[in-house]
Write a structure and sequence with these properties.
Layout: H1 6-9, H2 14-28, H3 40-49, H4 60-72, E1 79-82, E2 85-88, H5 92-121
Antiparallel strand pairs: 1-2
Helix pairs in contact: 2-4
Length: about 120
């Protein structure tokens, strides 16, 4: 959980993992290829209108946390995302490009962190 963002980054509860994750996994497995991507907004609407999961009122930050859980636990292999939404990427070249993009974002965030930490320690 990120300090100052608790409402957005709270950890998943056992009940959310038990009830929401399987529905999201099942839904994501139908979205193969970037042309069949599904957006965060579409998934939230689906979950919020589906009787077994509608009691949770899933918002975009919570769905991102669910997707992170799914990725970390390997529940939907090769789950990628783009501005079009989430999708399974079976193209090795495109998946490597996605991983390179992810690494570039990590490196950018690390540079920002290092600069801010330097400012903290030297001002």
């Amino acid at each position: 959980m990120l300090q100052g963002f608790e409402d957005f980054t709270s950890d998943l509860t056992a009940e959310e993992i038990r009830l929401l994750v399987p529905f999201v996994v099942k839904g994501l497995k139908r979205h193969i290829g970037s042309d069949n991507a599904i957006t965060n907004k579409e998934m939230c609407q689906g979950l919020n209108n589906f009787p077994p999961t509608s009691g949770f009122k899933v918002k975009p930050p919570k769905l991102r946390k669910i997707v992170q859980y799914i990725r970390v636990h390997g529940l939907v292999p090769r789950l990628a995302s783009s501005s079009k939404g989430y999708y399974i990427c079976n193209d090795d070249v495109k998946f490597k490009e996605y991983l390179e993009s992810l690494m570039a974002r990590i490196e950018s965030m690390t540079l920002t962190y290092d600069a801010l930490e330097y400012q903290l320690l030297n001002t």
